[in-house]
Write a structure and sequence with these properties.
Shape: elongated
CATH class of the largest domain: Alpha Beta
Number of strands: 13
Radius of gyration: 35 Å
Largest sheet: 6 strands, mixed
CATH superfamily of the largest domain: hypothetical protein PF0899 domain
Number of helices: 8
CATH topology of the largest domain: hypothetical protein PF0899 fold
Distance between the termini: 86 Å
Helix content: 25-40%
Order of helices and strands: HHHEHEEEEHHEHEHEEEEEE
Number of domains: 2
Oligomer: single chain
C-alpha cells in the first residue's frame, strides 16, 4: 500500500481533474463516465487513508502504552525487576543478563558495619564491604572505560631564598598507578521451586548475597593491596603490643601532610585493643569507648589481614569499577537437579596512589 502522503497527493490530483470536467457547460457521456471513475477511485483512496490514519493512531497509543509500561517497570523496586527478569530469562523471553547497582552509603560513623535485613526492603542495600570502604573515605572511580592511570609523586617543600638566589629544584619524579579491569565473579544456585515464589523479598535476598560476595572480594583485595604496595611497616619491639606502638604508626608518616586519618584492624584486634590498658591519664584503654585510638577514628572489618593494624589517610587508596554488576542466568548446567545457576560478574581493581600515607603494624602478638 502507498504511504499516507502519497495517497493524499493522488486524491488531490483526482479532485483537480474532476473539477476541470465539471466546469464544462455540457458533459458528454464519456466525460460523465470519466468523472464517475475518478469518484470511485477517490472513495477507495478515502478508505485507504482512513485505514492508515487509524493505524497511525493505534501505533501512537501502542508506543505510549509501551513507554508507560517501561516507566512503571523502572519505578519498581530492583528486586521486583530482578524477579520478573529471572522468570523471563529462564523461559527464554528476556536477555540473559541483568545489570544493577546498590545505592552507596557515602558516610558512616559505625565502626562495625553489619548487614541490614532485606525483609522490609525490596531494594538492594550497600554491602558491608563497600560500606566499610566508603566510611574510610577510600577514593572510588566508577563508570570507567579503559585503564585508569593515577599520578602520584612525593611531597616536597619550597625554600625561602636570598634576593639574588635561584629557586631550589623540587626534583620530583612523578610516578603512575595504573588500574586495569580485573574480573570478580561468583555464583549461587536457586531451585525452580524457589522461582515459583512471588515474594520479592526472597529475590532481594538472592541479589543481596551475590552483591555482598563481590564486594567482600573487593574489600579483601583492597587490604592485600595495602600490604603489597609497600606501606611503612611498624614492628612491635617489646613482648606485647603497647599504646606507644600504635602512636609510632602516626609518627612514621608524620612528615606527610595527610588528610583525615584512621586506624583499622580486624574484629579480633578490636576486641583485644578494647581491653588493652593505654597507660594514659586521659585514655584508659587503647580502643577508647568513643571508637577512637589516640584521637583518631578506629574501625574494624573482617577484610583486614590477620594480626594487622593499618593507619593513615585512606583516601590515598583507590577502588576502580568498570560498569555495573551483571547477573547471568544459566538454567542448563544444573537442569537435572532442577536448579538455576546465577553468576554475578564485575570488573574492579584496587590500588594505593600514595603508599607513604599509610603504615602497617605487625600485631601478631595478640
Amino acid at each position: 500500500m502507498k504511504k499516507l502522503n502519497e495517497l493524499k497527493q493522488e486524491r488531490s490530483e483526482l479532485i483537480t481533474k474532476m473539477e476541470a470536467i465539471a466546469k464544462g457547460e455540457t458533459l458528454t457521456e464519456e466525460q460523465r463516465s470519466e468523472w464517475n471513475g475518478y469518484d470511485e477511485s477517490i472513495k477507495q483512496i478515502d478508505s485507504d487513508i482512513a485505514m492508515l490514519e487509524r493505524q497511525e493512531n493505534l501505533n501512537k497509543n501502542n508506543v505510549k502504552d509501551t513507554m508507560e509500561k517501561v516507566e512503571q517497570r523502572e519505578q519498581q523496586p530492583v528486586a521486583v525487576q530482578f524477579r520478573n527478569w529471572l522468570k523471563d530469562a529462564v523461559a527464554g523471553k528476556a536477555e540473559n543478563k541483568f545489570e544493577f547497582r546498590a545505592e552507596p552509603i557515602l558516610t558512616s560513623t559505625e565502626t562495625t558495619i553489619v548487614n541490614k535485613t532485606v525483609a522490609n526492603s525490596l531494594d538492594i542495600l550497600t554491602s558491608p564491604g563497600e560500606a566499610f570502604l566508603r566510611s574510610l573515605g577510600v577514593s572510588f572511580y566508577t563508570g570507567l572505560t579503559g585503564n585508569l592511570v593515577l599520578p602520584a609523586m612525593a611531597e616536597d617543600t619550597g625554600t625561602f631564598v636570598s634576593e639574588d638566589a635561584s629557586a631550589a629544584s623540587a626534583s620530583m619524579t612523578p610516578e603512575a598507578l595504573t588500574l586495569a579491569a580485573r574480573r570478580v565473579t561468583h555464583y549461587q544456585t536457586v531451585t525452580r521451586e524457589l522461582l515459583a515464589q512471588t515474594n520479592p523479598a526472597i529475590f532481594a535476598g538472592i541479589m543481596q548475597n551475590l552483591y555482598n560476595g563481590v564486594w567482600n572480594a573487593v574489600a579483601n583485595d583492597w587490604a592485600d593491596t595495602i600490604e603489597s604496595d609497600g606501606a611503612t611497616q611498624i614492628s612491635v619491639t617489646g613482648a606485647t603490643i603497647t599504646y606507644a606502638n600504635l602512636c609510632d604508626m602516626e609518627a612514621s608518616i608524620g612528615g606527610l601532610s595527610i588528610g583525615a586519618a584512621s586506624y583499622v584492624t580486624t574484629p579480633i584486634g578490636k576486641a583485644y585493643l578494647k581491653g588493652l590498658n593505654a597507660a594514659s591519664a586521659d585514655i584508659k584503654f587503647v580502643w577508647d569507648s568513643d571508637n577512637t585510638i589516640a584521637g583518631y577514628p578506629a574501625f574494624a572489618a573482617p577484610c583486614v589481614n590477620a594480626n594487622r593494624v593499618y593507619f593513615g589517610d585512606f583516601s590515598r587508596t583507590n577502588i576502580a569499577q568498570w560498569g555495573p554488576l551483571e547477573i547471568i542466568a544459566d538454567p542448563y548446567s544444573d537442569a537435572k537437579k532442577g536448579e538455576i545457576r546465577l553468576t554475578v560478574v564485575g570488573l574492579f581493581d584496587t590500588g594505593v596512589s600514595n603508599k607513604r600515607a599509610l603504615a602497617i603494624l605487625d600485631a601478631s602478638l595478640y
